Amino acid sequence: MTEAIRHDYEVSSEGAVRHWEIPYARLEDITPTPTLPARVTCLTAGLEVCGTILTIDATRSVAVVDFTCGMVYFQEVRNVLTYAGAEATWGPINIGDCIYYDDTAGMPAGVYLSTSPLDTGANANPLFGWAVPRNDTDMALFPKGAALVASTQEVAVMQRGAGCG
Fold it and tell me: Is the model's pTM score more than 0.85?
């Protein structure tokens, strides 16, 4: 019997890459920007699927979002831990820390990720991924930010994506 490759997935060493077109109207930020995080709206707070915007098609009002589990992108992350009407506490971001998609009003422009599991209304923020070192040089910079001081840090984030249980 001759051996044959019947499907592309049989030779993939990376696992499934998940890039989907999502209408702007289904995204938390209805004016998406390539390279920024995205959150698809759903009925249950905290369980929304998140990914990174790859491209946009303004004519069709759709964004291509990478929902690949385990993909790593460099993102801006706010070091806020809790809110009390506004940001209340902050902490350094360390390797392995959970990173959440946070749509809280008042976040710096272009920043959609934080270390806070809840938004200002005490609603669950969906888990976007985890802080990871980008390389050896970046690893030496952890922890990033400081306790008691608000800041936005550049962090490599391994995204949870779709299909990651």
Answer: yes
> What is the rounded CA–CA span in Å between residue 97 and residue 2?
49
Q: 76 and 154, same structural domain?
A: yes
R_g (Cα) of the chain, nearest Å: 17
Residue 165 domain flag: no
**Three-state secondary structure string covering 74-105:** EEEEECEEEECCCEEEECCECCCCEEEECCCC
Supply the pLDDT for residue 155: 97
Counted domains in the chain: 2
Q: How many CA atoms lie within 13 A of 76 on its CB side?
A: 11
No. of helices (H) and no. of strands (E), the chain = 1, 11
| Residue in the structure block whose two tokens are 């272009």 | 110
Range of the domain at 33: 15-66
* Nearest Cα residue to 27 out of 47, 17, 42: 42
